[in-house]
Each structure stands twice: as C-alpha cells, then as structure tokens.
Task: structure prediction
Amino acid sequence: MQSIFVSKFPFSKNAAEYLQNLDIDIRTLPTYFPNLFKEAFNRLLNLMENKKLPEKIDISLNSPEALIYAIMRVFVELINEDFLRNWFAEAYSKRTENLLHSESPKTLITLASTTFDWKIYNEIQIAGRTYNWKLRFDNFLEVAPNLMAKDWKLVNQHLNKGWVLLVREKLIRLIAEKTKLYILNRKIPRDEIPNLPESYTPYLNALQSKINSIKKNFRSQRIFSDEINKNAYPPCIQFILKKTEKGENLAHPERLFLTFFLLNIGTSIEDILNIFKTQPDYNEEITRYQVEFAAGKRGSGTKYTSFGCPKLISYGLCKKELDEMNWCITGKVFKKVLKNPLQYYSGKIFLLSLKQENKSK
Amino acid sequence: MVIEKSINRQKFLAEKFRTFYVSKFKKECNLSDIEYREFGFFYWEPSKFVRHLRFINIENLAKHIISKVPKHIYSSAARYEVPNAPNMKLKSLIDCELIFDLDVDHIPTPCKKDHDKWVCKQCGTTGTGMAPKTCPAKKCESHSFEEMSWECEKCMEIAKSEIFSIIEEFLSNDFGLNPKTDLFIVFSGRRGYHIHIENEIYRKLDSNARREIVDYIMGKGLVPSYHGFSLKSGNKPNKFETGWRGRMTRFVIKFLKESSPNELLKILTRRVNIINVKKDLVAQLNSRNPSWSYPNIGEQTWVNLINAAIEKYGAKVDQPVTIDLHRLIRLPGSLHGKTGFLVKKMSYNELEKFDPFSHAQVFEGSIRIHVHTAPQFRIGNENFGPFKDQKIELPMSAAIYLLCKGVANLL
Ligand code: SF4
Ligand SMILES: [Zn+2]
Ligand SMILES: [Zn+2]
Result:
C-alpha cells in the first residue's frame, strides 16, 4: 500500500515492498514515467552541483517519491562512483533527520524496527530521570562509533541490562546516521541490474560527463605538491585521505587531525581546502575559517600541534594494521618510541630521500 | 655444560607435556568449531612461532600436539571460512568471540614489590614490583625491561575478584548478559583469566564496537557531566542508580574511604581538612540525594576526584585483546610453557571454588631436582620453599613449575 511513510522514507523496507508490489519493470521507466525519470536525473545533477536534494519534496499520499528514489539508485549503481554514492546517501540521511524531528514516536519505531531491525522502546522512566527511549546497545554501536564524539561514547551513556537510554534528539541522530550506512550498504549486485534500453543512454552519458568534469576538477587542483610527501604519510592519514577521495563524510576529529597534520608538514591552506571539497557538507566559507583558525591566522593565533598516537588510538583513528613499515605495529621509528604521526612522516621522508639520492648517484 | 642442561630440561618437559596431552588433552580442550579456527604454536626446538594452521577436528589437532609437543598453544577467538589462509583478508572472518583478558601483569597489586623484579635491558638498572614505563636511570630512556614475576596467591585472588566484578557489575548488570549461559572463563595458566562471550550478538560485533565496550568497562573516556554531575545539575547521580551514574558515585565513596590522606591531598585543595572532608563526603554520598557540594571544593576538583576513582577501580583488562578480531589466545586444555599449569576452561559457577594451585596441576609422581632460587609457593595443599641452591625431592607438578620458570635443573 502506498502511504505517506513510503514517500517520506523511500529507502525503507516499507518502500521497497511497496515498489515490489507495483511490479514495475525498470526497463520501461523512461517510456511510462518520463517525468519521474527526468526528475531523478535532475536531482542527481543537482546533487553533484551542491550536494543537496530539492528543498521541497512532495510527500502527499500520491507522491511518486519512492519511484524517483528507485530510479536514482539505479543511476547511482550504474555510474558506480564512490563519491556520488556517498553524497546520495548523505543527502537522504539529512533529509530523514529533518523529517524525523516532526514525526510521531510510532513513525520512529516503524522506521528503526522494520528497516534496521532495531530493538527500541518508547516512554520509559528510570530512577527519577526521564529518558523517552531505549535502544539495544548493539544497535547503538552499529552507528555511534562513527560519530566520534565524547558524548557518543558508550561509556557516556546510561546503560542498563543491555539497553542504552536515550532522549529523542539523540535517537533521531542515530537513525539518520544509520540511514546513511543502510543506503551505502545496499548496493544492487551488478548482475541484478537488467540490460537497459537505449532510452537510458543519453541520461547516463550526461551524468557520466558531469562526473568526469568533477573528477578532472579534483585532480587539476593538485592536492599534493610532490609525490614523495604523499608516500610518506602515516597509515592513519592515508586512511582519512582515501575517505575524502571517495567523498565520504569525515567526523569532526578526523577533520581536525587531518588539518593539523597537513598544516604541520607545511601544506598550504589552499591545498587543504581542496581536499575538503569532496565533503558532502562542504562550505567554502566555513571550512576556510576553520582551517585558517587552525593555522593560527584567526582567533587566538595559537598554532595547534598534530594529534599524538595515543589520542588517535583512543578515537579509533590509528590504522597501524595498515602500516607497511612495521613502525606503527612495533611502536618504534628508528629505535625511538613512536608518539606522533609526524614522527612517522619525517622518518619516512628521510628514508625516501636516501633512496632518491641513491638513484641519482 | 649449561646448554646441555637446558636441552635436557627441555626434553624432559616436552616428554612430561606429551604424557599429559596423550591422556587428558581431548577431555580438557572442549573447543567449539575447531575446523573454523586458526591455530598457532610456539615450539621448543627450534624455538619459533608458527600460525595460520588449521585442523579439521579434535583428533587431528591432538595428533599434531602429541607429535610436536609445543611449548605454547594458541587458537583464534575468531572463526574463519579459510582459517589457514596466510592473511586476514583471505581468511574471511565469520565472527569472533568477545574476549576480556585480565592479567595480574597489568594490575598494581600491593604484594608485587615482594615477588616481582625487573631489569632494564639497556642499562641494567633493577627494581622490585611492576616495571616502570621509562627507565628511571639518568639519561637512559629505555622502555624495555626483563621482568621476573611469580604466581602469587594474593595476586591470583585479586585477579579472580576483578573477574567477578567485571562479570557481575558490568556484563550482567549493565549489559544484561546471563553469566551462566552466555560466557565461560579460562584460567590462562599463569597469572590471569580470560572471559569468553559466545553469545551470538557479541560474536558479530566489529572492532569499533568492541573498543566501545572495553572502554566502557574500564571507564575510559568517561565525562562526569554526561552522567549528571556538574555543580549546576538538577539531576545529580546517586549511588543507588544503575549504570555508570551509580557506579561513579560508589567508586568515589570507596576512593575516599581507601585512600591515604596524602593521596587525597593531591586531589583536594589544601584549604580543606582532609579528615573532616573524608567523613562528611562519605556520609553525603551515601545518601539518596547527595548534593555533591562542599565548601572549597570546586567543580574541577570533583571531576579530578571522580577520574582518580575510576582510574583506580575501573576494570584493568588488556584493551587490544578485546579489540583485535584476529588475536590468538591460549587454547583451553593446553599447558602453559612457562609454568606447566593447565589452561583451564570453566563455567561461571566453577570460578568461585577454582584454585589455580590445585585445579590447574596435572602431573603425578615426584622427582629430585636442583633448585637455584625460589620463594615460597604452594601446590595443592602443600607449601614449598623458599629455596636457595638446594637439591630436593619435589612432587612432579612443583618440580615442573620450577623447571618451566627456569630456576631449577634436572640432576
Ligand atoms: S601508530 Fe601513530 S602513526 Fe601509526 S597509524 Fe597509529 S596513530 Fe598513525
Ligand atoms: Zn635503563
Ligand atoms: Zn602477589
């Protein structure tokens, strides 16, 4: 049955069921629903421009939202580009969060329990302190570590008999984050996408060329002034940079760490800003302010040193298992205890420059 | 001559271990899903570590152990599609038990200064108790020490009560696990215990989730204000509450009661009278509705007090063991090569009565050996030592213990 719920949450299991019952062959979409098809196409173009969905989306009973979403997903699948997939998921996650603020508890429960298989209860009271919600800790942990903030750590929740007690705002934030992960994890297997008729081709081509121009743009703004430096990055930094290349949203500590690290090794503010351009919520003005602040150009004028390894370990940002040098695993760089990724960097620069020298000889 | 002695000792120990493995290994091992686990062995001769091994059942595993008689035997807490693949990616993880590893090595027990010693590997400085993080000798910044430790009864009791508190306080109360059905415990064969949680939900957790759980039981990263503590808060915690709210309060009470005036002075301001403060605060925090306020104690001082209490009483588990999905841990039913004690699997109900110095002893008979040096220790109901350069007839388990520790030789 079509319902407002389905239009509001077109990624949900309810929406998937609804579509299945309609029994529509996606090959016929351009012919039978040319308008929806164009709408989906335009939304993706827009998403690539400004990383946003339209402000006003029709969520009436007869809205075709579920179909539009389904078409967008097919496009995203066919184009198969990480950053597009991330922007897409992020945009629907934001939209979900905005909608949920004015939804009834029942809607929250339906979405969380049917689509995410979460165990969740409303209206509880514990020892004089009123929380309206409780959620199983394992469901909480599917999402909360991604948010990388102290108030999201399990140790800072009220946990009782396996239930995390929550207020509504926090629950909504968790559902929004889970929405993103849910969309990202539901790739349609390639062999389940049928051969599409020619009517798809011009749209796909247009999207593809847009993608190409965006990619060229990323590349032409040369992020790394020279290749040696890039190879010298410690695994924790490389990991975060890979995320930015894929357009994955960085958590706040990741941004800070990356910024401080790059500033410390002498990367220019412009180069750093370019790296953040793939972020789904990129805002030139705000980001510039933040990076300049970190560089000590604004605010108090103090320069911050890069995060140390212990701090990175506690945030789960240390990626020592990815290290090929064996420095991170052993915790030593040339017999010195590895305390800060900058040490890793200068050690590696040293090695690489030796190699360079040997080559030129 | 010295080398010869050590080879003889090794051969003897391996033979004794073999006898045990032939007769009792299969009964003691009790490992589920053998065919999906990775195994690792540390061999006596040549002394090397080999991992990425797979066995299709207990018979094959026992056969290998009996023919090679390794010094240490490990298996994965994880189950893999291809346990013998050479790297983690190819192994393809199915799931992994959640493990907590609690070892006296990481707990500053009061008796350690009496039975543990360390030597700096760089400059040779020595000391008693736990090794420091950095060598105290001038200009020596070494972080590596040779440590000599003993299995002490008091330490083992402390370890056991820590395990009880992790299971009851945290796993049962906060996480809602049933200790009787959801977990089992393994004595490590030396100075610690492992808790294994086999419950389906826990096996599926990724390593980020595990980090959050281990931080939770250690109290790592706890911010008091998220638990209602701030001077302005209208909803301050009390000791009767569940979760960290109540625990935080109880820890502070305990800390106030157990700390010396000097320790307390380091945290509280000099403007207060420690003796009075101690009494007043304990009385206040024991009430249903503590005000968490006291003249001359500001918010930051309170926070420092809370943090110090958590630091002292939070669980002292080895964090990486819990987080790492690919760890190998000691196989239940194997013998610890540095003690000859049995790595013993037990249920929660059996833990209370478990005595490592009796129930992890597996050898029979007796033998005369030359003991160089050993403090007093107990095996079964009998006390032995202290010894100093002595030839003496000992029950086999006691003799093997000293031989494994490297403080005795065969005659
Ligand atoms: S050990 Fe330090 S440098 Fe290496 S990955 Fe971890 S945080 Fe980065
Ligand atoms: Zn030293
Ligand atoms: Zn002791």
About this structure: Residues B 109, 111-112, 115, 152, 154-155 surround zinc ion (ligand 3) (CB under 6 Å). Chain A is about 60% helix and 5% strand. Residues 221-225 of chain A have pLDDT under 50 and may be disordered. Residues 336 and 343 of chain A are 9 Å apart (CA to CA).
